[in-house]
Amino acid sequence: MSFGTRFAPSPTGLLHLGHAFSALTAFQAAQAAGGRFLLRIEDTDITRCRPMFEAAIYEDLAWLGVVWETPVWRQSERMDVYAAALDELKARGLVYRCFRTRRSLMEEMAAPHGPATQVVRAGPLPADEEASLLASGAPFAWRLWLDAALDALGGKALTFEADGAVTVADPERLGDIVLARKEFPASYHLASVIDDAAQGITHVIRGEDLIEAAHIHVLLQALLGLPTPIYRHHRLILGADGKRLAKRDHAATLASLRADGVAPDAVCARLGL
Ligand code: GLU
């Protein structure tokens, strides 16, 4: 398959220098390979995504000189595809209901960056406990049951190419990840692997804060019969405090740099591109 990569922002805030670095790194890789570059809007978190941020994504990337294939896919329009994959995993007994609090679940689903703050390996509840929680109307999320998933793969080690080296997947790093819940029908992990495959992405190029995620994505791909792309991780752009830039770093947003009269070339130079 010919080279294809993507930039997949979530429209939950304005893009900043870190996003610019990620988008430009992937875009330049596609150009160097004579391949495809896609932009994908990852708007599964309906509580935090806003149309104005999606509009700003197009404006900021065009200003940077990035060119992407159209039509742009929006994950909010593909929920039935993710639901079908989840149904398949349910039918195979590879997921279970988790009744933890809504808040901790939402945080876990929306923030895939960096190592897991807490790794869950609970497995399903005893049937009677689950039945009474369900009867009480308690809300729940669907988690991947890692033990069952590893069994389903027959203990076969999964390998993938990351940053030029063959790597053995270690899905235990993230544990029983959340795949879905009622008001959030597909987590980042589920939607992202399905769309990378559906869009013919051969190279996933993204920040090194998503290295952990690759280890579980490779497992999801194996379970769902999807191809595994090649992974490349780039360095992160840090703020003055030495921490990864976040949506709260307003000074570093592309919109504010543009408003200050900074030219796109100066942004590239500042990023070392
Ligand atoms: N929507 C994710 C983010 O904004 C995409 C991560 C990825 O490239 O897979 O971080």
Question: What tags apply to this protein structure?
Answer:
alpha/beta, binds glutamic acid, globular, 273 residues, three-stranded parallel β-sheet, three-stranded antiparallel β-sheet
What's the count of strands? Answer: 10
Helicity, in percent? 25-40%
- Rounded to an integer, what's the Rg over CA atoms? 19 Å
Q: Structural class, from helix and strand content?
A: alpha/beta
Order of helices and strands: EHEHEHEHHEHEEEHEHEHH
Number of helices: 10
Shape: globular
Mean pLDDT reading? 93
What does the largest sheet look like?
Answer: 3 strands, parallel
Distance between the termini: 27 Å
Describe the model.
This protein has 273 residues and is of the alpha/beta class. The chain contains ten helices and ten strands. It has helices at 17-33, 51-64, 79-91, 102-110, 127-135, 146-152, 188-198, 211-224, 254-259, 264-270, and strands spanning 4-7, 36-41, 73-74, 95-98, 141-144, 159-162, 165-168, 178-181, 203-207, 230-234. The chain has a three-stranded parallel β-sheet. Strand 2 (36-41), helix 2 and strand 3 form a beta-alpha-beta unit. Helix 7 packs across helix 8. The radius of gyration is 19 Å and the shape is globular. The two termini are 27 Å apart. The model has no long low-confidence stretch (mean pLDDT 93). Bound molecules: glutamic acid (GLU). Residues 8-10, 42, 188, 192, 206, 210 line the site of glutamic acid (GLU).
Give a brief rundown of this model.
This protein has 273 residues and is α/β, with parallel strands linked by helices. It is 39% helix and 15% strand.
